[in-house]
Write a structure and sequence with these properties.
Length: 423
Amino acid sequence: MRVLVLAAVLGGLLNPGFDPAQWPGKMPQTPRVNALAKELREAVRACDSARIEAVKAKLVTEMGAYAGTPEEKPEYGASIDPSTPDLAKVETVWRETLERLRTHHLWADAAPRDAQFQTGNRLRVPLREARAYLFSYEAGLEPKDQNLAAAKEGFEYILGAQASTGVFGFPYDPKGGGLKKQAVAVVDAAKARGLNVVENGWVIDDLGDGGLNFDNGTCGIGLLDAYRVLRDERYLDAAKRAGDWTIGRPLVLNWNYNAFSGWLLARLYCVTGEQRYLDEAKRIFTCGVLPGQMDNGRWFDQHNAKIQYHSILATTLIDYTLALKKAQDPLAAEVEKKTKLALDNLSEQITTFGSSDPTGLLSLEALCMGLEAFGPTEQWQKAVNVDVNCLCNEFAPRLAARDMPVPDPIAEYIRYRRWADTP
């Protein structure tokens, strides 16, 4: 169980980030904290808003000193350059990664390999590559035809990996470690209940843990992006099946797990106009995402205080806000305010301390999407510039030395720049 902590508001400011010199470490477990976390989990699962707030208040009092610090010590880039990046340079850096990926697409390491269902990457990995090719094509980045072909190949793989239940599952490797070992634990627990949760090499049920929400939501969102650009009804149908799988699933205490499902359902409502998707998104965000956010825009647990998870949560709230606006729902104004607070806090962290998360850089995706959704915001734009300049000048050479690609949100940035720079 991850410890939940409250992030303090320092001097009435946003408390924008975490000075590594002041990092207090990961909060130790205590019986009182564990008991309160269990009680909060039960309240979230029951979607009992009054009880959620009451338990959270007790937990806030108990946590105190570890106010909003991430569970791991943050590391930031050496420079903070908010000047507008040279788009040509950015595109060159990204093309180099695309060319390397063309020789070995990440979905080649994801498909089941043999009768023992030994698999490689989780589906979120090849999905993000396919989506990055799609965005590169959409931005007009050459070679357009190759970018489009790669995107289609990737999405075809994703379509083929969908389970009969509609879910996009975990890879199952009986001998694997790390995340694969977690999947094995789920399979073993299911077997103890007389259940078979493996289909074609994928674990298709997490027994209420919530972990499947990540890959399922990411795949569904990517397919909706593909449908928007390519208008292939198969992508929409598959995304709807993934969304249907999430409806009624239990909420969990990891806010970002819930958020992935809410994100998919909110986007589905925007695309289809089907009210059932918005109704379920409202349940998820009301009880399973927004209760974790504080008045300064941060989420209070140490896990989601990490910049990559804060960025994910902010990203999902953008689409939820747009869905509420489309529906002219009375919640729209309040949720938009909370979404902007999350983006404000994220941008303050970056412009104060620098860019971080060099292998993911999910903050760049969140801020570009925020600028597209809500219009120009000087602080957000400065943070985007800091992220991109640090990526090109510092992170990219470091990643290349390790034979690693630069993170795919750079494709989102190029697409955003092409849009923003068009008169």
